[in-house]
Design brief:
Strand content: 15-25%
Number of helices: 5
Order of helices and strands: HEEHEEEEHEEEHEHE
Helix content: 10-25%
Number of strands: 11
Number of domains: 2
Shape: globular
Radius of gyration: 18 Å
Length: about 230
């Protein structure tokens, strides 16, 4: 079920005060002054916007914390990209670019890729929604039921529609925040197996459906796309 699906307004002025600090870490003054760990759909993720370049990443986070590497994408393959805080899964950003030119801009961001369930992702919305937010909490924040894909396939657990609820703002085309949920590990039982079997399909389900409520899956993937900004 844990198949990655790919999916950050203004740069905070305090970023300039730490631009030359290449030894910054996730808990340094950079995090405190120019990176608030806040995801604002349609605008930014911390100091990152659709206009951010690789050179900007170095100014924001320090050269020590920025590395070009291959990133796992939705089909299980890999694409060249850039990772920020790669040694800290709970703070990391995996960034894909529009092209391979030096001044290219952000195409998409994957938050906390490779994070273990027991760990906490520092990136969050102001609701707050983050890794570990469960389906029932998403319903409460949204103010109504929503649609999502069944589990155990390439796009399994992906939220497909907020049905006009408060979380519909996550779906703004330019800077869209995509969420995926997945059932937490549990003790094997006939009841649990039955619930999972009822929603293991490449079809849409309502969050209010009995099996979804019974499993109460949690957010285990967040990604932000700026691709539509460039059309």
């Amino acid at each position: 079920m844990r198949i990655f699906w790919i999916a950050t307004a203004a740069v905070l002025t305090s970023a300039l005060s730490v631009a030359t600090d290449s030894s910054a870490t996730a808990d340094s003054s950079i995090a405190g002054n120019s990176n608030d760990w806040l995801i604002v759909p349609g605008k930014r993720a911390g100091p990152i916007t659709q206009k951010t370049t690789r050179a900007d990443l170095i100014r924001f986070f320090g050269a020590k914390n920025v590395e070009d590497t291959d990133i796992v994408v939705s089909d299980g393959g890999r694409e060249p990209g850039t990772v920020v805080f790669g040694d800290q899964p709970g703070a990391s950003l995996s960034i894909l670019w529009l092209d391979d030119t030096a001044d290219t801009r952000v195409r998409s961001i994957i938050f906390c890729q490779g994070l273990e369930r027991a760990e906490k992702c520092r990136w969050h919305t102001d609701d707050p929604v983050s890794f570990g937010t469960d389906l029932k909490t998403l319903e409460r924040i949204n103010g109504r039921k929503f649609k999502l894909n069944g589990f155990d396939w390439g796009y399994g657990g992906l939220v497909t529609s907020w049905e006009g609820g408060r979380l519909d703002r996550l779906s703004i085309p330019c800077g869209r925040l995509t969420l995926r949920v997945d059932p937490t590990a549990g003790e094997p039982s006939d009841q649990r197996s039955s619930l999972i079997e009822q929603v293991e399909d490449n079809d849409e389900f309502w969050s209010s459906d009995g099996p979804m409520q019974g499993l109460n899956p949690v957010v285990d993937h967040m990604s932000m796309s700026f691709l539509a900004c460039n059309r």
